[in-house]
Structures are given as C-alpha cells and as structure tokens.
Amino acid sequence: MRHVPASQFPRLLGDWRVGGGSLAGRLAVAVEKAVHDGRLPLGVRLPAERLLADELGLARGTVAACYRILRAEQLIITRTGSGSTTSLPPRLRDRLSPWASDRGRAGRSGAALDLTRAEPAAPFDELLQAVHAAADALPALLHDTADGGGPSALHSAIADAHCAQGFATRGENLLLTSGADAALNLLSAAYLRQSSRVVLDSPTYPGALAAFRAAGARLVAQPLGPTGWDIPALDRALQAARPSLTYLIPDFHNPTGLLMGEEERGELRRRLRAHDTVVVFDETMRDLDLREPVSPPPRAVTRAGDRDVVHVGSLSKSLWPGLRVGWIRAHPDVIRRLAALPLAAALAPSPFDRLVATRLMEHREAILDRRRAQLRAQRDHLASRLSALPWCRFRTPQGGLSLWLELLDADSSRLAALAAARGLSLTPGFHFSPDGALDRYLRLPFTLPPEALDAAVDRLTEAHAALESTP
C-alpha cells in the first residue's frame, strides 16, 4: 500500500493554522481540502498519529482528534494493523460513472453555451475538398479485392508527419483506429485484466478513465503539481503499485495544458527502466503547440524499439473532431500483436474516413498554422477575462485546447449546477480525477469564438455570485 511520509505534510497542507476553530478542526479541514483537490491521493496510508504530531509540532491528542473528525466524515478509513487510509465519502462516489468521458456528458443537450466539449472548428474549405475527393475515390476502393492488410497511403502520411518532427516512424509502426478512445480501448483489452492496476496522472483525460474502468482496472492516481510532473513521486507510485499499464500525457496535457520539459523527460526515461509496466503516451494534443514561435517538439521519453512503450495519436484535435481516425504507434511486433486481436477490426476507421483523412493530411501544415493562431488568440482572450476574477486562479497553458481553472472558494459541482441554470454547461473537476477528487477545479475550453467566451465568463460570474448568496 502506498503511504505519504509525515515529512511531506507541511508542503501538502500549506498554511493550515490560519483561521478559527480548534487546531484539530483546522488540520482536518486542511487534509480534506488536500484530498478533494488531488494533492493527497485516495487510498494512501496516512502517517501514524505520533509521527505526524512530531512533524507538525503538535500534541499527539490533537492529531488523534483530527483523525476522529476525518473518520466521522468518512474521509479516512482506519483498520487495526493497517493504519488510516484516505477515502472518498459515499455521497461523492456516485459521481464516478463508468461511461463518463470527454465526449458524453449528461445534461448537455439544449444548452445555449456548451463548454463541456473541447473541439476546434472544422477547416471548412480543405474538408469540403477532401470529402469530394474521397467520394470520387471510394468506388475504386470498394471494388478492390486485393488484400488491404498492409500499410496504406494514410499510414505513410502519418508516418511522414512523425518523421518530420524527429520521431522515426514507418507504416509498420502504426495501427489505425477509429479515434484515440478506440486505441485506448484496444490497449485495455490487450494489457488489462480485472483488478489490473493502472498508474495515471490526476487530473487526466476522462476518456482514458472510462476505458480503464470499463476494463475493470484499479486506478492509481499520481497528482500533478501546479508546474508539472513530480518524477520521483511517480517513480515511487510505480514501485508501490507495480501497474500493468501506465498512462501519461506529456505533451500539452489534457486538461491542464502542461508540457513535460526535457529534464523531466530524461529523468523519467532513466526511472522507467526499473519498472515492468507498459507505458502509454497520449500524443493527441502534441500538434497544438501555442507557444510563439512554435518550438520543435520535445524528444521522445523512451528509446525507439522499446516493446513496452506505445503512443496514441489522433487527427480529431489537430485536423477535425468529426474525423474518427486515430492510431497506435509502437514496435512492429507490438502492432502485429494488437492487430491480431478480434477487437482490432471493430475499432478500425471506416474506409471513407481513411480516404478523407488521407486527403486532409495533404493540407495538414496549413490547417495547423491557422488553428494555432486562432486558439492562441482565444486562449489569451479567455485568460484576460478570467484574470480579473478574484475567486479563481490558473496558469496560462502552453498548448492544447483548455484552461484548468482552480476555484478558491467554491465547489465546482455546485458552481456548474448554478451555471447550467443560466444556460452554460461546464465540466466539474471530478470528471478528470481517477478517484473522484478535484472538487475545486473546472476545465474551460477556449475553442469557442471570443464573443461566446465573453458570454460564458459573464454567466460563470453570475453563477458564482448566486453561489455566494446560497446557504
């Protein structure tokens, strides 16, 4: 079982002594906040009362009283001989739906402003040309009786794009899927069994959470810090959990927009060698670099030819959300194994989608240049509006499609409910949490035009004002 050393608690809890009430009560509130916003993962063992009391300079009775408060709130579970572990109260567990994903959210229909979807606009002119060209080419494809199992023109186009970025790739390194979610479901079928452990960031992409939960996996959350990844802490999590699969988004992370730096990648590369786990790197957002000027993509975390590493990519964010084309990039032996699974054929893209994607890839750079400029302007506009609000804070993301908003005085579920009553659909932070935490966060996509973002911020502000007046 994972545990949190007493020496880490001063950093985790911050300045918890400020405020009214007893020391035990203030300490319990600080621990509760750390659990809810993901700083303190669920299912980890807390320090013994004596050790925590010594570290914080408290009487042991004060820590014991704090633990009693947390037990009463069902935020910790204490078992004889096993100590106290963090938990989620039953009233919050029901929020963890196995089908909750980035592409399906209850209550979304009919909303005047939908900020639950992070989807850029379609490249209309290039898309129309690609659809017409695909329609002309489709009859020949349908009459072709030759074996279509080898690399196609789309394989080559995707491989060439990776090579241009410095990632050596050939058609045999790619398995096409009907989107990134399909790739994650196929990998889950290949590598996970009931109760297999998966280590992953918190927050992370909800579609991955849905795929791993559907496979019956046990999710082990590794919290992201405000500035990125704590590689030594991730190393400890891998050592303790011994996961079958590890899922990371190092490039413009969804939903935070964080980018793993070269130094972090080097340290992660060294530490991964000690662990027997399949590592899945999600590259879906990698092309959405909003730095100016756009920088060369960071080096790969792992070496080419590693059979324990796979990469997942998609054209839905970079080219068009309606295009159901994604891929798994890995060693040819891994690709052959995955392609042999019965599920692979069911999760493959349709012939027409492949034709459209092949044509769109011819305009990839022009589409990306326009998309980055548009997203950069929309991101900066949203950030400018939000920076004037005293009840929230955020870091301007370096890339991706969304902004990760921390609420300083509110619960995101309550705020989202009040916003929905005002015609604004939002996604509370717990949807991005492997264990249902992150109550103080919202994901705000900046994929809508500035005037729509203005209206969204106005309604969000009205909802927060209503929250302040609600008992």
UniProtKB/TrEMBL annotation:
PROSITE patterns: HTH_GNTR (PS50949). PANTHER family: HTH-TYPE TRANSCRIPTIONAL REGULATORY PROTEIN GABR. Residues 21-89 form the HTH gntR-type domain. It holds the Pfam family Aminotran_1_2. Transmembrane segments: none annotated. Keywords: Aminotransferase, DNA-binding, Pyridoxal phosphate, Transcription, Transcription regulation, Transferase. GO terms for molecular function: transaminase activity. This is PLP-dependent aminotransferase family protein. InterPro entries: Aminotransferase_I/II_large, HTH_trans_reg/aminotransferase, PyrdxlP-dep_Trfase, PyrdxlP-dep_Trfase_major, PyrdxlP-dep_Trfase_small, Tscrpt_reg_HTH_GntR, WH-like_DNA-bd_sf, WH_DNA-bd_sf. In the C-terminal section; belongs to the class-I pyridoxal-phosphate-dependent aminotransferase family. The keyword Transcription applies. It comes from Actinocorallia libanotica. Residues 83-106 are annotated as: Disordered.
